[in-house]
Write a structure and sequence with these properties.
By secondary structure, the chain is α+β, with helices and mostly antiparallel strands. It has 8 helices and 4 strands. Keywords: ATP synthesis, Cell membrane, CF(1), Hydrogen ion transport, Ion transport, Membrane, Transport.
Length: 181
């Protein structure tokens, strides 16, 4: 089985359980927390993926680290460790978030800008691009990138909307080079 198939199975099971118990919003918040912990802590991943560490020790660590999450999410994590699917936890969180976003009509957006955007600027971008993509809302992650000189670049799914000064300058440069040939 490929990694994405395994991750999708666990995320689908958790998503359906969340739907049954009306826990989707809670689960998404908790899963984003779990995702952040796994992304920012290489030692945790190394520990969980180490073959000589007993499964029970791995489960104890997860119970301690995630004692405040719902039993549904914690049990999913424990089952994944029990079945030696530790490496699938991060892909499972991503699949769950994507599934929940689709169910709620929300899209994840990464916005690159020269400086941190204000809440009003984020809301303005969300309003314009949510309507353009026929979504109810966008979850915006702002990344500060001084190399873009000015403007913003949005990445939503596999689409990129580039309104940066640096890309405009690159286009002008290409036009000048091709005109001089």
């Amino acid at each position: 089985m490929s990694n994405s198939v395994v991750a999708n199975r666990y995320s689908t099971a958790l998503f359906e359980l969340g739907q049954e118990k009306s826990l989707l919003n809670t689960l998404e918040i908790e899963i984003r927390g779990v995702q952040e912990v796994f992304q920012n802590n290489e030692q945790l991943q190394t520990f969980l993926n180490h073959p000589s560490i007993p499964v029970e020790k791995k489960k104890e660590l997860l119970k301690d680290a995630f004692k405040d999450v719902s039993k549904e999410l914690l049990n999913t994590l424990l089952i994944m460790v029990e079945r030696h699917r530790e490496s699938e936890i991060l892909p499972m969180t991503e699949a769950f978030i994507q599934m929940n976003n689709e169910a709620q009509g929300v899209a994840e957006a990464t916005v690159y800008s020269v400086r941190a955007l204000s809440d009003d600027e984020k809301q303005s971008l969300e309003k314009v691009f949510a309507a353009k993509l026929d979504k109810k809302a966008l979850h915006i992650t702002n990344i500060v990138d001084p190399t873009i000189i000015g403007g913003v670049k949005l990445k939503i799914g596999n689409r990129i909307y580039d309104g940066t000064v640096s890309s405009k300058l690159e286009r002008i440069e290409r036009q000048l080079v091709s005109a001089n040939k």
